[in-house]
Amino acid sequence: MDSITVLLVEDNAAFRQFVRNTIENEISSPKITETSDGLVAVQLALEINPDLIVLDIGLPSLNGLEAAKKILTSSAASKILFLSQESSKDVVQEAFKIGARGYVVKSDAGRELTTALRAVLRGDRFVSSRGEGLDFRKGLRLLV
């Protein structure tokens, strides 16, 4: 894939490094900006206008869902891929209603993050294949 600008928003430093490494392995020379705070993410998104935002939900200052709402109001061209430990159907559906292009449950990231990155960057939607035994694809078909 061609070089793109990525905003990586994750409050766990070790997991953020894993995601960064995955992005760097998948994308040629990405320009990655990182933060661990939802409010800072909104400010950075307005400044750098990233192609892709990889966004956790459980963040300090402003949760990822609220941050995404604010970001997409001003930067609708950015594609958002949520990466969260939250796997409830309601949260996943809310993420897509807000405008997310993808959602990966952190416990599935080792298997699915690369596929999710590819799908979201080409304009497709991606949803983790599992999470608490629910198949989110069935529940989201109406939203796609």
Task: Give a description of the structure.
With 144 residues, the protein is α/β, with parallel strands linked by helices. The chain has a single domain, classed as Rossmann fold. It is 44% helix and 18% strand. It contains six helices and six strands; from the N terminus they run βαβαβαβαβαβα. Strands 2-1-3-4-5-6 form a six-stranded parallel β-sheet, sandwiched between helices. Helix 3 (64-74) links the parallel strand 3 and strand 4 (79-84). The longest helix has 14 residues, at 13-26. It starts with a strand and ends with a helix.
Put the structure in a nutshell:
The protein is α/β, with parallel strands linked by helices and 144 residues long. The chain has a single domain (5-140), classed as Rossmann fold, CATH 3.40.50.2300. Helices cover 44% and strands 18% of the residues.
**Treating each run of at least 4 consecutive H or I residues as one helix, how many helices?**
6
**Major sheet size, sense and barrel closure:** 6 strands, parallel
Question: What fold name stands as the CATH topology?
Answer: Rossmann fold
Coarse structural class: alpha/beta
Using the coordinates above, name the CATH class: Alpha Beta
Uncertain residue ranges = 131-144
The proportion of residues forming helix, as a percent range, comes to 40-55%
Radius of gyration: 14 Å
| Estimated share of beta-strand residues | 15-25%
Cα(first) to Cα(last) distance is 25 Å
**What is the name of the CATH superfamily?**
Response regulator
Strand neighbour order, sheet with most strands: 2-1-3-4-5-6
* Arithmetic mean pLDDT: 88
